[in-house]
Design a protein that fits this description.
The protein has about 160 residues and is of the alpha+beta class. It is built from three helices and six strands. The protein has a six-stranded antiparallel beta sheet, with no helix packed on it. β4 and β5 form a beta hairpin. The longest helix is centred in the C-terminal third of the chain and has 56 residues. The protein is rod-shaped, with a radius of gyration of 35 Å.
Amino acid sequence: MKTSVLALALAAALLAPSLASGQININIKLPLPPTPPLVVVSPGVQVVENFEEEVFFHSGFYWTRRADRWYRATHPQVEFVPVEVRVVPPALVKVPVGHYKHWKHEKRDERREDMHERREEHREDMHEKREEKREDRHEKREEKREEKREDKKEKKEKHKR
C-alpha cells in the first residue's frame, strides 16, 4: 500500500509541471458576414473592407491578430484558432498593426491617385532638370565656339600686323 501511494505521488509530481506549463488557447469568433467584402491591398493579400478589426484573406485562410497573437480560420463565420507566428504568411506579419482597420476601398484609390500625381510631378521635375542641363551644355558649347571665333580673329589680326 505504501508503495502504491508513493508511486502515485511520484507520478503526480512528474506530471504536474507539464500540466502547469501547458498553454491555454482561446478561439475567437468575429461577426463577419458569410462572404465579407474583400479589397486587394497587395499581391495575394486581401482585407475585409470597413471592418472594426483587421481581417486578412491570404492563401485560402482568413487571418486576424489580437495583442501580438495571430488567429486563422477556414471560413469567415467559424471560430478563429490561434496559430504560431511562423505559420503566418510573411506578407501579413510585415503589415503595421491597425493599418487596415476600417479600411475602405476609396482610401486605396486616393492613395493610388496621390502616388500617380507624385510620380507625374517627379517625371516633370526630372524632365525640367534634363532640359536645363541640355540648355547649359548648349550654352557652354556656344561660348566655346564664340571663344574660338574670337581667338581666330585675334590670330588673324596679329598675323596681319
